[in-house]
Write a structure and sequence with these properties.
Elements (H helix, E strand, L loop, with lengths): L2 H28 L29 H5 L14 H22 L7 H21 L4 H4 L2 H16 L4 H22 L6 H17 L1 H25 L11 H26 L1
Helix pairs in contact: 1-3, 1-4, 3-4, 4-6, 4-10, 6-8, 7-8, 7-9, 8-9, 8-10, 9-10
The structure holds zinc ion.
Zinc ion binds next to loops.
Length: 267
């Protein structure tokens, strides 16, 4: 890829990521209430006035309005621009991995879909301690189509590693759920796990393994920190979805390099 193409791809992916992030804000606030994500148009939760197109530009509008509603001056949560920025950064990162980095360009569509859903799921899980079926279940057909696209574009079909990844994630996330009787781990986590495992496994089995390790390590560290600093008890339920999703991203990026480093150490 030439430098100019890389810059154009980054601008395109970053811009699209901002717009998708803006839509994810709608998803995050309406899906848990069972409301439509298409209509009505967004309105201020404070005064109910419709948000005009010029006040709905991702990140920029929030900065121009200094985080306040144009009509009533009610503060607009910083979470809105943060979700948009996080989605933009994720799109840039995945774009780099697939197009300029070590990854498979054909995997980019499925990574962008699962990654964007992951941003919404992370925030919803933190808010409501659940992963809504309306977001998780469509990821199954979406991932299947996405992996077929990856196979057609690259000409290689790693179905077995994808299956290994899916089963591994299902078992490792499902067993604690089964044993604990649904405490700590929710059934939503169990439903999400095979999709993440399959996509990671398609990229590399080492990505699927590293992703799981990262998810549980990250979860244990945050759980420990919550006990020490926030006085959370052993029974305090932490939503596990964000750990699975962040772990998956770490696995994708760090799994194969870690595996080859480990193989080198073993000689
Ligand atoms: Zn208002």
């Amino acid at each position: 890829m030439t430098a100019l193409m890389a810059v154009l791809a980054a601008v395109f992916l970053g811009g699209l990521g901002l717009l998708v992030g803006s839509f994810l804000n709608v998803v995050i606030h309406r899906v848990p209430e069972g409301a439509s994500v298409v209509r009505p148009r967004s309105s201020c939760p404070g005064c109910g006035s419709m948000i005009s197109a010029r006040d709905n530009i991702p990140v920029v509008s929030w900065l121009i309005l200094r985080g306040r509603c144009r009509s009533c001056g009610e503060p607009i949560r910083a979470r809105y621009p943060l979700v948009e920025l996080a989605t933009m950064l994720l799109w840039l990162l995945l774009g780099w991995w697939a197009l300029a980095g070590p990854g498979d360009p054909g995997l980019l569509p499925v990574l962008l879909v699962v990654g964007s859903a992951g941003v919404a799921l992370t925030v919803i899980d933190l808010d409501h301690h659940r992963l809504p079926n309306v977001i998780v279940l469509p990821l199954y057909p979406a991932a299947l189509v996405g992996l077929i696209i990856a196979g057609v574009s690259s000409g290689s079909w790693p179905w077995i590693p994808a299956l290994v990844g899916a089963v591994l994630w299902l078992v490792v996330v499902g067993l604690p759920w089964l044993v604990s009787g649904g405490r700590g781990m929710g059934f939503g986590d169990v439903k999400l796990a095979p999709v993440l495992g399959a996509v990671l496994g398609w990229a590399a089995v080492s990505a699927a393994v590293t992703g799981l390790l990262a998810a549980f390590l990250f979860g244990a560290l945050v759980g420990l920190a919550a006990m020490i600093f926030a006085g959370a008890g052993r029974k305090t339920a932490l939503p596990f979805g964000p750990f699975l999703l962040v772990g998956a991203l770490i696995g994708l990026l760090a799994g194969p390099p870690l595996a080859s480093w480990y193989a080198g150490v073993l000689g």
